[in-house]
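Fold this sequence, please.
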Amino acid sequence: MILPEVEILFPNGESAVPDLSGWRTERIAGHLEENPVTVVPDWVCEILSTSTRRKDLGPKRTMYAAHGIPHLWIVDPDARQLDAFALDHGRWSLLKTFFEDDTADVAPFEGTPLLMSNWWLKIR
């Protein structure tokens, strides 16, 4: 289950609103009506913008690691770049960086190749 901009309430009372949050179906079942959601996501994705870049790359990324979210993707639309991270002993480990026309096939969506060129605005 992937949901856009839902508030996540962590066990210690901290909260965040990732751009996208994802859970394995069996983990989120019975909690979809919660507001805020109290089940820690299996994956979060932040899409960088001028107004959110510093917070997304700093405090939010640190918070996600502290709460044990296994996977974090950072999308930079200006650079047309995806950085995919996995949590490893409490620290983010970069799995791979994908650019503009690459095909991303990476955790937690291995086996579901994503064509990056479909992600970017096509300006004529």
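The first helix runs from residue 25 to 28. The chain is about 15% helix and 35% strand.
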